[in-house]
């Protein structure tokens, strides 16, 4: 059985630790909060992030990254995107031999416009990096930790490494597929959070299922348009890390992005929403990054664009919906190869 470091003891890092521990791996879970790590080691719980869940005893908590990564064969990064570069620097300074880097975070870095696998390649020299693999798909921590049926995709340009990660995680509750399209998997996983914010926002405004279905469908069209321009396989967007994750995030009671959008639609300010959530709402920064990426690539992304104005330029949400509905008439199906 393998020894794996999980860097990030929030909801998703803790839930994925349970999957690995159920598969009899030795999990070294890093978190920055001493009290939380003490709770994980002594009471085998993480009440703030996974209430009412018992953690298996083969999950050990660490507060120093140096200790968590010592002797492991793979490092799973699962902190919010804004924290990734800092943890990577600390890993680089302490890692002694090459490991597989897996990440399960969902975001794009504003300004640099890097995907997370690109940040890993930038920060971690090849001599200590066997490969980079992303794990993504429709998977809320709350359900994974209850061992409810979940399916995800393991993606790497080295398919043997994607299969290695598939083998680490796969069990009878957690089914893992592989896909070599790293760009498509990362873009789908990151950008669906923008659409979930929009779906929550229309709910907050009092609109129903027609509006939600419209946002999801046209949202997927613009995600695919950008992804294909960046080199993704169009079919990936119909898969687990595309359509699958879009469905779960736009319709689940667990979705942080949907809940944040809902509060915005009900008139709360962005600051009020983020303060109240207390958990990662990746869609906000990803909207900024996707807006910048669309501009750089010359790709039309109307939903992302109006949400950017709602989040960062105080556009009224009701006006944003009216703007989308009043766009110039167009064809539905486009030639995505253009
Ligand atoms: N929660 C889910 O169901 C889920 C599922 C799939 C993917 N994800 C993705 O996983 C990533 C983590 O999300 P989460 O839901 O676990 O978040 P969370 O809010 O539950 O936990 C975040 C964790 O990161 C830590 N953290 C926050 N800022 C930090 C910093 N600057 N430096 C170091 N640590 C920091 C927090 O202390 C906490 O332990 C996100 O990219 C999210 O999109 C989440
Ligand atoms: O709760 P959300 O909106 O951060 O979404 C979590 C996961 O990405 C769902 O797959």
UniProtKB/TrEMBL annotation:
Xref: PROSITE patterns: NAD_G3PDH
InterPro entries: 6-PGluconate_DH-like_C_sf, 6PGD_dom2, G3P_DH_NAD-dep, G3P_DH_NAD-dep_C, G3P_DH_NAD-dep_N, NAD(P)-bd_dom_sf
Catalytic reaction(s) noted: sn-glycerol 3-phosphate + NADP(+) = dihydroxyacetone phosphate + NADPH + H(+); sn-glycerol 3-phosphate + NAD(+) = dihydroxyacetone phosphate + NADH + H(+)
Residues that coordinate or bind sn-glycerol 3-phosphate: 106, 137, 139, 192, 245, 255-257
Binding-site list for NAD(+): 8-13, 141, 256
Segments forming domain Glycerol-3-phosphate dehydrogenase NAD-dependent C-terminal: 181-322
Protein name: Glycerol-3-phosphate dehydrogenase [NAD(P)+]
Cellular component, GO annotation: cytosol
